[in-house]
Amino acid sequence: MAQAISGDHCRVTKQLHVLKTVAAPDPVSAMPLRLQFDDADTPIDVLDALSIAPFAAGELPAARTANVKRLRKDAVLLPAEATVIRVAQDETRKAVLATGDGWMLLVFRWDESARVTVTAINEEVAERVVAEAIDGAEEPETEDATVVNMGFWYFDNCSRRRVREIAAPTWPEIRANYTTGVATAFDRLVATKAEDLSGRLLLLHGPPGTGKTTVLRAIAQAWRDWCQVDCVLDPERLFGDPAYLIEVAIGMNNDDEKPWRLLLLEDCDELIRGEAKASTGQALSRLLNLTDGLLGQGTQTLIGITTNENLARLHPAVTRPGRCLAQIEVGPLTRAEASAWLGGDGVAPSDGATLAELYSIREGTAPLVAETPDQHANLYL
What we know:
Layout: E1 2-6, E2 11-18, E3 33-38, H1 43-57, E4 62-68, E5 83-89, E6 93-100, E7 103-110, E8 113-120, H2 123-134, E9 147-155, E10 159-167, H3 171-174, H4 180-190, E11 201-205, H5 212-222, E12 227-232, H6 235-240, H7 242-251, E13 260-266, H8 269-272, H9 276-280, H10 283-292, H11 294-297, E14 301-307, E15 324-329, H12 335-342, H13 355-363
Parallel strand pairs: 9-12, 11-14, 11-15, 12-13, 13-14
Antiparallel strand pairs: 1-2, 2-3, 4-8, 5-6, 6-7, 7-8, 9-10
């Protein structure tokens, strides 16, 4: 073990040298492995490096990796004969390094997910150990038609994804929440199948409280057989950080059983308004690249965007023909539609009402308003 100190930055660097020579004539088997650690690395990084060493040295030349979503809380992720040799844990992650007869295994757990990597003396052993490790470790996907499993992406030192069961109404249950023309457009969108896709961008725009998020949950329910829906909680960070974008767009894309994914970006007005190119730099370009650029062609990813902006204020590149699967303005219901929606549970405003306003009228939850009389009324200077 060698240790060096840099005078310029007072940075401690540790170098781990692993040299394994075997009798096999393959020169790769005698390849020296040089692993470098610094003060930014953690014990989990050390375990990651230790798991790679026998593979690089040729001692365990076969490797297999499996990802587990919806991880059961009691899942061990180790074969019965495993011997644990290292454990490292921080606030959100845990890594376990274990060995067995002719193999080494690294388990990396975070949130409700895990990754299991096995290196072994041959492919048969690697596949057997991985299969034993993940057997029964995943919660089955819910069969309850009233909920869907939705992923939530966010960045906290690294990209993270959590899966939650979200209440999802069926489209017929909420169709009356939308004015006639909008409901007709959603009829076609909800019925869309993977083979019907003619664009990668789903754009919903309109005033707050008109039901854009509600209909997205219904779409997730209608598309559940062929499309996994994920919500990105920090879209500005996503398109401002290439590494984060690659992880979300590609890194998890092959882990789902469903061929397509819908990434939801709610209220990301700054990314798509007319002056976005000047104010957000490459973020808008990366968003468009994910819809129908080179990055988009390498994935089966749809982008769903909700915005309160008027369509005229959006960047023309976002709304150009051929890019949008759907472009729907979600507005308030007319007075007649609002009255029908209330069904006698209140009086609809004369100029119509948004969905949020109708629920407020029906449930009697309108905010209390207290006005202070103007003390300067009827005074003249």
